[in-house]
Amino acid sequence: MNDPNDFKNITVAQYQTQFFETVPHTLLDVRTVAEFVQGRIPSALNIPLDELPERLSEIPNHLPIIVVCAHGVRSIYGSQYIRHAGFEDVYNLEGGTVAWWQHRLPLERP
Fold first, then answer.
1. Rounded to the nearest 10 degrees, how much is the dihedral formed by the CA atoms of 31, 32, 37, 41?
2. What count of other Cβ atoms lies within 10 Å of the Cβ of residue 1?
3. Residue 48's Cα: distance from chain center in Å?
4. DSSP per-residue string spanning 33-91
5. Which of 28, 30, 15, 27 lies closest to 73, judged by CA?
6. Which of 14, 74, 77, 100 is 20 to 30 A from residue 31's alpha carbon, by CA?
7. Mean pLDDT of the chain
8. Choosing from 65, 69, 70, 90, which is the catalytic residue?
9. What does the DSSP 8-state code read for residue 108?
10. Domains, the chain, ranges and CATH?
């Protein structure tokens, strides 16, 4: 079993240079659906934190997973849960979508 605390924290700048539009990965947004539709980081997959146990099969386990929420707190819990479930390469996006927006980066709306 994976150590649930063995995930990495990553800043918005690190995410941009190491993953965004360059390396295949899954950006997992654990905010509520209502929050998600207000604005999301491009290409994010929305699985609200309280739905993770039932929806783990929707997350590809062969790619790095970057977990994001609004401010970076729920994503810590999501990262821990995913690590505990056996996923290997898991990152928590520090500051969440708020930090993304503060860096004046684009948000998508459906």
1. 10
2. 7
3. 11
4. HHHHHH-B-TT-EE--GGGHHHHGGGS-SSS-EEEE-SSSSHHHHHHHHHHHTT--SEE
5. 30
6. 14
7. 94
8. 69
9. B
10. 8-102 (3.40.250.10)
Q: Is 69 labeled as catalytic in the residue annotation? A: yes
Residue 84: Cβ within 10 Å count: 14
Residues 64-99: pLDDT tens digits?
Answer: 999 999 999 999 999 999 999 999 999 999 999 999
Which residue type occupies 16?
A: Q
Question: Which one, of 104, 40, 37, lies nearest residue 68 by Cα?
Answer: 40
Which H or E run includes 84? helix 74-84
Q: Which amino acid is present at 71?
A: H
CA distances from 110 to 16, 24, 46, 99, 101 (A): 22, 22, 12, 20, 17
Sheet arrangement for strand 90-93: 8-10, 90-93, 65-68, 26-29, 45-46
